[in-house]
């Protein structure tokens, strides 16, 4: 509540209750019957203690008045001092009559005022600011004097609350602490002050700190990027081009890999618009990769296929506005397409998908589709498998309408080399087994994510059928036993794997946190067998949340003398047995390691991390990385 | 012949429009392309004379490239390297040059 409202509403203020009191005669009676406006609890309290808010207000007003008078007086003297000093001629004239002694006295007084100002904090602040602004040409003494005088000058200005004429427009206005000084030292009105401030904002360029702060380092660390030395010139230029993408009219004959990188950066920054898309449309190119098509419209997609007739590879992600007519246009015009990758193309109907597969038939080598929830059902998959007999690579992730029938159809694709599946619908283990039985022998990649019913039998089939796998994923499964994993990797004819992901294979039962007697998921035995089988070639390994791997197993796998020369990325998140010692052993045994992910490994506290290695997820993420040894390329 | 080339401490990089930049050999070898040109065992004329004529690059671009070479050498094995200042109007040309020079 402000001072004013306190006074107005206060029932104790004399001028308020004197009226009705005299009119009614009985003071007490009026008090009881009177309708009172809202009043603060404070006023009530003060009144009950016989303190008048009005009195307080008046006291305050008096103090303000006194302060104003005092300031005005000070200002006058300051003005005098200032004018004496500034205008030497006037000074001579004005003080012509005074004795040399008086003159001396005043000069001394003036000098002390200046000295006082020079010692003040405000003066020091301004001085340092000024020094930054201009290179000090003048001698320090002179400069100091000037600044001090300036400050005296400022003191003589009208104080807030007074009226003044604007220096620029001449309007009369109330001076506030925010009033700006005009070019000639006078004050400016609100509007002119604002203009001046706006101008100042425009002229000072926005400061852009170097992108190498602690936050940036941590952000890069989470991406597994530990940078030593300078970025490559190409990378640096690519970033610069991406920054200035609005000024780029065309890329010229930029080679395809650089275009690809630019597309990635632009997509990440979400600036891939219809305008920037044009920069990527070059008729001689055979591929287009746009990772974020969210801002492109139907016609833009059509333009891609119109401008680039010789496309063989199409990769469009987040292509929400890609419709039937675009795909139909593509089938009419682009006859050489071999490789199709679409993400989130939910406006394309099943009928259109079937026409696409019929049209391209056996020429399609790779189909990767993800996040299709509206169309693309089992029948379409059957159609695809019927027509696209030459398919070597198939990836279906998060397609909501595919299920067992799709699995059955995929089992007929004899030419498959790479198969990645992540279904939303629950599927049966029999169909999955059929796939491995029928196409397993050629597979180099087998990625089964979220197949909850895959069991030991499936692992057994993989053991007996797959002999050319390089990449193997079986994640998010709570059925396969440790025993089966151990059997899979023991005496397997498959050459050593390079990429293994067995994350989240464990029993999840809250009522039995230690898991059943027979261990579920990749546990000690299976892990040892895996590393025995693939340790010599393995590059990336993800065993996050395989919670039954014991400390002994880790100690054995990463014991003295064991070497995993190619392992660059390892994820051991949610392994409670992981501690500083084991992490140290890992660094020792994996000379090539670049990225070690260890989220929720609470015993990892104080590890010495070799230079050039990203340890992600450790508890004290904000600490600077402990770097050990020199970085070697 | 190649023994003399090996002893040369400085090499000369020549732009398409005739500007010459004399830089330490190690600095120039930041670029993979130039490193292979100057490889003493290759017997390229560049390796023998210690002089690389880069026809496709203009003087302005080559100057910036040389600046990058020095910047790269200076920040070798250091963390938190500040970005080099690249004028926006030059960055596309420089990008082509970087691609060619394999840096």
From TrEMBL, chain A:
Top-level taxonomic group: Eukaryota
DNA repair protein rhp7 treble clef domain: residues covered: 160-197
BP-aspect Gene Ontology terms: SCF-dependent proteasomal ubiquitin-dependent protein catabolic process
SUPFAM superfamilies hit by this protein: RNI-like (SSF52047)
Sequence ranges of Basic and acidic residues compositional bias: 56-73, 82-102
Cellular component GO terms held in the UniProt record: SCF ubiquitin ligase complex
Biased composition (Polar residues): 10-27
Pfam families associated with the record: zf_Tbcl_Rhp7
Region (Disordered): 1-42, 55-142
Species of origin: Aspergillus cristatus (Chinese Fuzhuan brick tea-fermentation fungus)
Lineage: Eukaryota, Fungi, Dikarya, Ascomycota, Pezizomycotina
Protein's UniProt name: DNA repair protein rhp7 treble clef domain-containing protein
Automatic annotation (TrEMBL), chain B:
Annotated SKP1 component POZ domain residues: 10-73
Keyword Nucleus assigned: yes
InterPro entries xrefs: ELC1, SKP1-like, SKP1/BTB/POZ_sf, Skp1_comp_POZ
A Gene Ontology cellular-component term: nucleus
Location(s) in or outside the cell: Nucleus
Major localization class: nucleus
Keywords associated with the record: Nucleus
GO biological process, one term: ubiquitin-dependent protein catabolic process
Plastid recorded as keyword: no
Role played: Essential component of the SCF (SKP1-CUL1-F-box protein) E3 ubiquitin ligase complexes, which mediate the ubiquitination and subsequent proteasomal degradation of target proteins. Controls sulfur metabolite repression, probably by mediating the inactivation or degradation of the metR transcription factor.
Family per record: Belongs to the SKP1 family.
Subunit details: Component of the SCF (SKP1-CUL1-F-box protein) E3 ubiquitin ligase complexes.
Name the record gives this protein: E3 ubiquitin ligase complex SCF subunit sconC
Protein species of origin: Aspergillus cristatus (Chinese Fuzhuan brick tea-fermentation fungus)
């Amino acid at each position: 509540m402000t001072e004013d409202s306190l006074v107005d509403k206060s029932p104790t203020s004399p001028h308020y209750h004197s009226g009705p009191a005299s009119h009614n005669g009985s003071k007490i009676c009026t008090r009881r019957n009177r309708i009172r406006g809202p009043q603060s609890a404070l006023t009530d309290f003060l009144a009950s203690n016989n303190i008048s808010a009005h009195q307080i207000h008046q006291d305050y007003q008096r103090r303000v008045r006194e302060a104003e008078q005092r300031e005005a007086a000070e200002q006058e003297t300051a003005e005098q001092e200032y004018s004496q000093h500034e205008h030497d001629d006037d000074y001579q004239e004005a003080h012509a009559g005074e004795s040399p002694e008086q003159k001396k006295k005043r000069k001394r007084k003036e000098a002390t005022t200046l000295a006082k100002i020079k010692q003040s904090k405000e003066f020091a602040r301004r001085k340092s600011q000024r020094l930054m602004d201009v290179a000090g040409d003048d001698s320090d003494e002179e400069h100091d004097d000037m600044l001090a005088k300036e400050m005296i000058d400022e003191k003589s200005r009208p104080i807030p609350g007074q009226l003044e004429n604007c220096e620029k427009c001449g309007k009369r206005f109330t001076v506030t602490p925010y009033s700006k000084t005009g070019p000639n030292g006078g004050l400016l009105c609100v509007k002119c002050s604002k203009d001046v401030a706006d101008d100042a904002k425009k002229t000072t360029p926005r400061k852009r700190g170097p992108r190498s702060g602690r936050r940036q380092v941590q952000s890069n660390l989470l991406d597994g990027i530990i940078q030593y030395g300078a970025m490559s010139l190409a990378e640096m230029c690519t970033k610069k081009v991406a920054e200035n993408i609005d000024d780029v009219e065309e890329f010229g004959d930029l080679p395809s890999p650089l275009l690809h990188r630019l597309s990635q950066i632009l997509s990440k920054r979400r600036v891939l618009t219809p305008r920037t898309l044009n920069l990527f449309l070059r008729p001689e190119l055979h591929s287009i990769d746009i990772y974020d098509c969210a801002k492109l419209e139907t016609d833009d997609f059509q333009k891609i296929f119109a401008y680039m007739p010789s496309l063989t590879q199409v990769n469009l992600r987040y292509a929400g506005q890609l419709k039937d007519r675009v795909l139909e246009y593509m089938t009419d015009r682009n006859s050489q397409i071999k490789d199709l990758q679409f993400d989130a193309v939910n406006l394309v109907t099943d009928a259109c998908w079937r026409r696409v597969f019929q049209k391209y038939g056996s020429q399609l080598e790779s189909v990767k589709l993800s996040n299709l929830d509206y169309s693309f059902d089992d029948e379409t998959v059957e159609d695809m498998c019927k027509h696209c007999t030459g398919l070597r690579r198939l990836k279906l992730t998060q397609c909501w309408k595919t299920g067992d029938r799709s699995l059955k159809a995929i089992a007929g694709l004899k030419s498959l080399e790479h198969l990645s599946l992540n279904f939303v619908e629950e599927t049966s283990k029999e169909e999955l087994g059929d796939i491995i039985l029928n196409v397993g022998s050629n597979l180099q990649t087998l990625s089964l994510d979220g197949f909850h019913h895959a069991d030991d039998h499936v692992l057994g089939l993989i053991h007996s059928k797959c002999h050319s796998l390089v990449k193997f994923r079986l994640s998010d499964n709570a059925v396969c036993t440790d025993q089966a994993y151990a059997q899979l990797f023991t005496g397997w004819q498959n050459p050593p794997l390079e990429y293994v992901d067995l994350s989240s294979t464990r029993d999840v039962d809250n009522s039995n946190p230690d898991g059943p007697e027979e261990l579920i998921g990749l546990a000690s035995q299976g892990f040892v067998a895996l590393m025995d089988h693939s340790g010599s070639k393995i590059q990336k390994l993800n065993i996050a949340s395989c919670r039954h791997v014991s400390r002994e197993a880790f100690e054995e796998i990463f014991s003295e003398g064991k070497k995993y020369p190619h392992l660059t990325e390892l994820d051991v998140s949610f392994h409670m047995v992981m501690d500083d010692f084991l992490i140290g052993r890992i660094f020792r045994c994996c000379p090539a390691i670049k990225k070690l992910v260890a989220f929720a490994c609470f015993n990892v506290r104080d590890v010495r991390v070799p230079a050039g290695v990203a340890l992600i997820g450790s508890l004290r993420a904000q600490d600077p990385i402990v770097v050990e040894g020199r970085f070697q390329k | 012949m190649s023994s003399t080339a090996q002893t040369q401490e400085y090499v000369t990089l020549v732009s398409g429009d005739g500007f010459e930049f004399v830089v330490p050999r190690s600095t120039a070898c930041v670029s993979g392309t130039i490193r292979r040109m100057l490889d003493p065992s290759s017997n390229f004329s560049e390796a023998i004379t210690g002089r690389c004529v880069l026809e496709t690059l203009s003087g302005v671009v080559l100057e910036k490239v040389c600046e990058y070479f020095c910047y790269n050498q200076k920040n070798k094995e250091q963390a938190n390297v500040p970005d080099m200042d690249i004028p926006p109007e030059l960055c596309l040309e420089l990008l082509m040059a970087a691609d060619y020079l394999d840096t």
